[in-house]
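MOLECULE: protein
FOLLOWS: sequence and fold
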Amino acid sequence: MVEPPIAEEFVEAILSNETPRKPGSQRAQEDNRTMTALLNLLGKKHTIAILHQFAMDGGPLRYSDLEDAIDIAPNTLTTRLKELTDVGLLTREAYNEIPPRVEYQSTEKARDLAPVFWYLGVWTERHNLESASSHDSGIDESQSE
C-alpha cells in the first residue's frame, strides 16, 4: 500500500478540488445521501476487511485469496463481493478456463479509500483497544498474574 502524504497535505489536496456547499443545499443533501449509503455499506460485516485486503495488495485477488485472508463464511464473501462490484468499488473478471478462474480488482473509487486504511493503521499503532473478550468478562487484566 502506498503511504499518503502527511495528514495536512492529504486533506488540503482533497479539499482543493472541492467547492463549498451551503448546509441544506441540494448538493449538501446529495452528499449526505451518498455518505449514508457508503457508511451503510462499510458497516456491513467484513466489508472493511475485504476492502483492506485490496488496499494492502494492490493487485487482482481471487475469491480463494480473500477466503484465506479473512475469516468469513463463503456465502457472506460472495454477497459482499457482489455488493462491492455493484457499487463500482470492485470489478469482476471471469476467465474461460477449466477450472474456472475469477479475479476481483479494486477500482479507482476503492483505491481512493486506501489512505483511510493507512491512517487507521497509524491510529492502531498509537492506541491499543482492549479485546472485547477481556472487556466483556469484567476481568481486570492488570491485576492478573
Q: What stands out?
A: Confidence is low (pLDDT under 50) at residues 133-145. Residues 59 and 105 are 7 Å apart (CA to CA). The helical segments are 7-16, 26-42, 47-57, 63-69, 74-86, 108-111, 114-126, 132-137.
